[in-house]
Design a protein that fits this description.
The structure is a homodimer of 332-residue chains. By secondary structure, chain A is α/β, with parallel strands linked by helices. Chain A folds into 2 domains: 144 residues, Isopropylmalate Dehydrogenase, CATH 3.40.718.10; 148 residues, Isopropylmalate Dehydrogenase, CATH 3.40.718.10. Helix content of chain A is 45%, strand content 17%. An 11-stranded mixed β-sheet of chain A has the order 3-2-1-4-11-10-5-6-9-7-8, sandwiched between helices. In chain A, helix 2 crosses helix 4. The termini of chain A are far apart.
Chain lengths: 332, 332
């Protein structure tokens, strides 16, 4: 089977040429990127689905998606809804991607809220952070579902045998947190694989974890993580190049620094999954390099291969059955 | 004038000896640390206020403060309330410190909620993050007051001429955020010096900012920041020492790495201010080194010298007058 990934070529901070280059890089016999963009675009031989319009980064998501039905972002999502593609990748407006996906790919039955899942390259293996920004305000039952979705992603795509679920909070004790965290903790505690709260300090060390949080906290955390990594590596470079001795040392440690940078580079995964939909959607960084786009397309294809959507639907159905069984029946 | 700082010698993750050593290091003619701990403790010649009991890290704050009136933490706070000390430093249970301060130092008139303010050593100067953990659930009007408190700290203690207030959120646009951030943005927008939202990625770069958030988000962010700094520096060391070439380079860049580490080290400030009280309180890290304790004591003394408490009270009074003036009077 050939996996077809619709790639939104427009609306990124860089030009469409980088997106096309990334798509060409990712293309294989089994993985066929389909470019969505204007007819004038040089697709380097890849199939094109025409979309004359563009949703910009600063547009209001819901309005833009309604007003611009012929934008590359909307048409790319619709390609998944129509079955013309198995997955979609977009480096554009995250809010618009969420709105267009809900409208054209639609939720898996039983999913309360789709969520953004990001792979965090921690020291001891990949962690999943969910929700990294789809739901700024969330309820405890949403967080409980995020745990299910993140676990499926970790197991099926990242190959973690028994993902450990943890709730991001401000202390490891169950009674530490804001009201949302306290209520979510109580719900998660009824679940296998839940290992209690975790703190931000562990996000980059422990591996194989599914770290659950609301989209506000998760997005603040993700951006803080990315910014801190960049600030420290840049700060180190500044200090090193300040002296001749440092410069010489810098040359010698360059391969070591590059290994670390490659591991921590967001481009290594290229994007974040939008989970809970009837098709796979990957949101790439707005300023993605062609390498990042290629990796985002591969990430999308891996999700299709491992049937993340089907397994999620199955898991939610099992939950409904389980809760039906555990509900005491009223005696006649 | 001699500034007297009550130092809670008990309840830290390390022993009381490190705390006493830090107090001895900080002592000068103008700064007199007063040790609060058991009578058996060797205070190295410093004055002792006797406190036979200890509140442990894992005790429930409010209950512990009520049950252990003769604990070092409670007696150290009471020393400020009684006027026997100008400030208090404790490396103990943060929640207990908050509860004991509210009870024995009490709030400045008009302060809705005391908040924890941490100095973040950013590239272009010190930022203040407030609230870093006192109020897991906060309301918009609390955040507006945190902005006032953080501004006074930044101006008076850190010497920033015109601190810029920013709201921690998930996008720079006013309409990005959870409900709390949206409502807080609307309140803050009425205030001079407010420059809109900021994202986590800027916390370590821009300087002279007062970054306002609720205590849950702020605490997650602070711990993530500290953990990421440690994880990256440790990861770099691991990569460097993996090869002979790297080891040699590592020796050469050691002074550069040390400069960066010193700037980013939480011990450089030693603690966080608990603002909004009628006396100065500084919360030190639970595993503070003697150097960190010495710096926390100096931080407390600097707050007393610059009359942070008096200026805060004055500013809140001005606010009340301003809002009285701007309220339209009903015509008779």
């Amino acid at each position: 089977m050939t996996i077809r990934v619709a790639v939104d070529a427009m609306g990124s901070d860089r030009g469409p040429e980088d997106i096309v280059a990334g798509a060409v890089e990712a293309a294989t016999d089994q993985l066929q990127p389909v470019i969505v963009g204007p007819s004038t675009l040089d697709t380097q031989g890849l199939e094109l689905i025409e979309a004359p319009d563009v949703i910009e980064m600063d547009e209001k998501p819901t309005e833009a998606v309604r007003a611009k039905e012929r934008s590359s972002l909307v048409i790319a999502c619709r390609a998944v809804g129509d079955g013309r593609a198995n997955a979609v990748v977009s480096p554009g407006n995250t809010g618009a991607m969420l709105a267009a996906s809900l409208l054209h790919i639609r939720r898996v039955k039983g999913v309360l809220r789709p969520a953004i899942a990001v792979v965090i390259p921690a020291r001891d293996g990949p962690n999943v952070l969910i929700d990294a920004g789809a739901n700024a305000d969330a309820r405890p039952e949403h967080l409980a579902q995020f745990a299910e979705m993140g676990t499926i992603l970790s197991r099926e795509v990242l190959g973690v045998a028994s993902p450990r679920v943890r709730l991001l909070s401000i202390g490891e004790e169950a009674e530490k947190g804001n009201q949302l965290a306290l209520d979510a903790h109580a719900l998660l505690a009824q679940r296998d694989g839940f290992e209690g709260n975790t703190e931000g300090r562990n996000l980059l060390t422990g591996g194989g974890e599914v770290v659950v949080t609301d989209g506000f906290t998760g997005n603040v955390a993700l951006k803080l993580l990315e910014g801190t990594i960049r600030a420290i590596l840049d700060g180190l470079r500044t200090e090193i190049t300040a002296t001749t001795r440092g410069k010489l040392g810098g040359l010698l440690i360059r391969p070591a620094a590059r290994r670390l940078r490659t591991r921590l580079d967001p481009d290594t995964y290229g994007g974040a999954y939008l989970l809970g939909l009837r098709g796979l959607a990957v949101i790439a960084h707005g300023n993605s390099s062609s390498r990042a786009i290629a990796n985002a397309i591969r990430l999308a294809a891996r999700g299709v291969e491992h049937d993340v959507v089907g397994r999620l639907a199955q898991r939610l159905q099992e939950e409904v059955l389980e809760s039906a069984r555990s509900t005491p029946t009223t005696p006649e």
